[in-house]
Known about the structure:
The complex is a heterodimer.
Chain A: E1 3-7, E2 10-13, E3 19-26, E4 32-38, E5 44-52, E6 55-58, E7 65-70, E8 73-78, E9 87-94, E10 104-105, E11 109-113
Parallel strand pairs in A: 2-11
Antiparallel strand pairs in A: 1-3, 3-8, 4-5, 4-9, 5-6, 7-8, 9-10, 9-11
Chain B: E1 5-6, E2 9-13, E3 18-23, E4 31-37, E5 43-50, E6 55-58, E7 61-66, E8 71-76, E9 85-92, E10 100-102, E11 106-111
Parallel strand pairs in B: 2-11
Antiparallel strand pairs in B: 1-3, 3-8, 4-5, 4-9, 6-7, 7-8, 9-10, 9-11
Amino acid sequence: SQTIHQWPATLVQPVGSPLSLECTVEGTSNPNLYWYRQAAGRGLQLLFYSVGIGQISSEVPQNLSASRPQDRQFILSSKKLLLSDSGFYLCAWRVGSSGANVLTFGAGSRLTVL
Amino acid sequence: GEDVEQSLFLSVREGDSSVINCTYTDSSSTYLYWYKQEPGAGLQLLTYIFSNMDMKQDQRLTVLLNKKDKHLSLRIADTQTGDSAIYFCAERFMEYGNKLVFGAGTILRVKS
């Protein structure tokens, strides 16, 4: 079966510290991978998406970066966190581009920057 | 532009029907989705509708699509306390990796 894992589930980091959130998918190959952020009281904002290894597209300019070193691994990073980076980060995957192509989400990583 | 709008809060009594409304912007969207988020959890797909349909029913859930007005609604029949959650409407864009654009979410509170 297909599963998606995110870790860590919860993270508290000081301003200016680095960040690494990891997402892995099992049971599928060549998925489209996405990072979304959910700020408090707001909807989901697409941050990055990837259609293959080493291929990253960014939706909005920001303090974050993403990498896809392996087919089923998607990493969200920052060199220096800002207070505004706090939020709930959700990784999602989809296979193919035809049909309904439902996005399947991970359980999320809650980041608090102090 | 990309903008999906939803009402922020809905409160209903257990056993009543809930109707959550959403408006979207892209008339070329092929699929529209409803996701549910329980506290502290990721998003779970509830249902979706293809743009050539006006209605889709799935057990207690009914989705209505009005393409002319770009209006989508989710009706939950016989609402239960377990339905309390945040409900997100999303539309799919063909470009940008077929990304989904989400609304801000509607908080559904079910009173027993």
